[in-house]
Fold each of these.
Amino acid sequence: QKEVEQNSGPLSVPEGAIASLNCTYSDRVSQSFFWYRQYSGKSPELIMSIYSNGDKEDGRFTAQLNKASQYVSLLIRDSQPSDSATYLCAVVGGTSYGKLTFGQGTILTVHP
Amino acid sequence: GAVVSQHPSWVICKSGTSVKIECRSLDFQATTMFWYRQFPKQSLMLMATSNEGSKATYEQGVEKDKFLINHASLTLSTLTVTSAHPEDSSFYICSASRTEDYYEQYFGPGTRLTVT
């Protein structure tokens, strides 16, 4: 089992729809959870961080964390073509000293 | 806030030469800096972790004598690729974090290295 797994893509949604990205992790004592967006040929950009159970909203983005189920998700509302990118789920484990463990990424395409 | 820069953004060098890449945190002091490598259509691969004033910790399989990392201050880390070969051609990305931010890592724009 991979340490961090993301739902297989690619994911294609129409403009204006909600895009849902999911991620599970295996280290039960993981403490910090992040979503990064990476455009082709560019470096990752931090878009959301979440540390406690529940929802965290920032503009069109909502991150959800359920530590009991070891599950973290990202919802993008009113998706725009500019949201088309690879989304990386990243987790800091209990003994990783700040090192991120990345999922394999989900490619999102928002079509007009 | 939390801006990280890298220099150069791209570099072409001849096989056998060395290349130095700089990573700077511009508006915060970075407790820890990380160096990653990414090949086309692949995920990020962590190469090493460095803390200011300490020797870098390299991931398994990464040659520490080939990829020299220096973290001289809380705002600057450098990666030197020594005796570069074509197989070292890749996208090198640094990131910086501060523990008070619960380990949020802020990535630099990356350096594209081509070895001819």
Note: The mean pLDDT of chain A is 93.
Amino acid sequence: GAVVSQHPSWVICKSGTSVKIECRSLDFQATTMFWYRQFPKQSLMLMATSNEGSKATYEQGVEKDKFLINHASLTLSTLTVTSAHPEDSSFYICSAGSWDIEEGYSNQPQHFGDGTRLSIL
Amino acid sequence: SQQGEEDPQALSIQEGENATMNCSYKTSINNLQWYRQNSGRGLVHLILIRSNEREKHSGRLRVTLDTSKKSSSLLITASRAADTASYFCATGFGSGGYNKLIFGAGTRLAVHP
């Protein structure tokens, strides 16, 4: 259980193109989805948190107009990299979680997609 | 800045040996989680330990948490070549419905046959 599917797995496109990445929870409802960015041999950096039906919360330094996040349903969140440039090339990973209303916060693990490698030429 | 730091950054051992990775963090946490990442792939959850727990086991994995020192360790016993991967600790914190994770720098483990 707890499978997260991320698509596409690899994208190569020209500078100036907008790229959409999808993150789906296949067998559970994800109240919250997270988007991370990872540079080679480095750790994951949290970009934003999205809750179903509300605006995403972006981490400091992440351009919300550059990285558009939509979480329209409990099973789908999308990240759109608008007018991508070579410096946006990276590995983008989504994760999904759910929270226990009784606890008030989640002590459950996040479930990660397999990532999307974005290369902008 | 990242919440956690891990050491060592890289670890190379022989099959059958134990591997120990350490993680330190800076602020109060709800829980600490360990994840594994194979090259170019997503992360796989290994163990979650809550802030009021001190030790947890799962198969060949043993995790300890010392909140007074703000540190945790992951021990992999009887390592196998298939354990070769990067291992990340992540501290979970936040309230109001979700748990943000801040990842450490990771330890790259190589297990040689």
Note: The CA atoms of residues 47 and 58 of chain B lie 7 Å apart.
